[in-house]
Amino acid sequence: MQIKRQQRIDADYGIPKSTQYYWEKHGLWPKRVNIGPRAVGWIVDEIDAVMNARANGADDAAIRKLIGDMTEARQAQV
Q1: C or N terminus of the chain, fewer CB within 10 Å?
Q2: Distance of alpha carbon 55 from its chain centroid, rounded?
Q3: What is the pLDDT of residue 6?
């Protein structure tokens, strides 16, 4: 499982920090994971799935369902 920090998300996907946090707040972006006492990141496979869904024309409801399914799968692994 590869995790990227916020700065890499900006650089690799061109999505500003403010947009990432807005989407996350509204259920349109995967939840952050703790990677240290003061550090968080996002799972690359989850970001890629959301970005692919957006590119294929998924609406907000479909994105929320996708994220919900990924969150459930992540929790089941723990």
Answers
A1: C
A2: 15
A3: 85
